[in-house]
Amino acid sequence: MSPQTATARHAGRPAPRASVTARPPVRSDHRRPLGHGSGFWVIAFAFLVAMAFTAVPAPLWALYQAREGFSTFMVTVAFAAYAVGVVVSLFLAGHVSDWLGRRRVLLPAVIVEALSAVMFLTSTSLGVVIAARVVSGLGVGMITATATAHLSELHTTARPHAGRGRSDLISTTANMGGFAVGPLLSGLLAQYAGAPLRTPYLVFLGLLLLAAAGVALVPETVERAAERPAYRPQRVTVPPAARPAFFAACGATLAAFAVLGLFTSVGPGFVAVRCTTRRARWPVWCRSWTSVARPARRRCCCGSAPGVSSPPASPRW
Prior knowledge:
disordered C terminus
């Protein structure tokens, strides 16, 4: 066959098909209502609200003990159930956003937190409280790593010539600051608003839904892969040379959070007893709080300080 004949014959054939592994065009997020700079602060707000919500029950444990008869051990179990959810979620879903997308993981995670708030509102029984704590931990396990990475990527895109210091500072503030904001706001709502075992969760449910709406408007920073990689749980590998420093840091972190967990779970009950036995010398807010948390003790202790009106005679659930 002559070269001319072969060329003519091949000319009539269709062009070869493209490889099936070719990446599809990535959908642009420029049409999102929020830019990367504004999205940075929206994610920081959602991160802060989610972490604050996990600490909402801390000042309410004494109220659960008074109404439902929770023992100190049961309070500790309910508090620790959150950690179980966090660990499970970190190993199963903490890395999914690397290939699925930051916003695509953050949005369901914030909704999971809102579901936990709804569970707290449905019942004050021990089983429901423990289940709600586990669900809250599952959501936070998805949020922690994803929000930290999303903040860094949004900041890098919005300010490409700036360092990571600002992003790391805001991320750490939202993460650890939430543990302070949550009990503070929850305690204030429990003291000054009606229904102390419902109002804090209603307020945070609204904040979580607002955060979810904001996350839905934030640009995505991870391109979805053409072929989804096979799912595997998170694996933790540490180079042999770095293991001594790694395990030392793990031990210090474990001890720090163990102390934090001890005070936030058992501390409110201890403070309630101390405030009740010495109520005449404590501020009005402490006497009011212990009168709600410990209504039985209130009737057998000394009265209010001179010139200070007595707290309500019955608790407001």
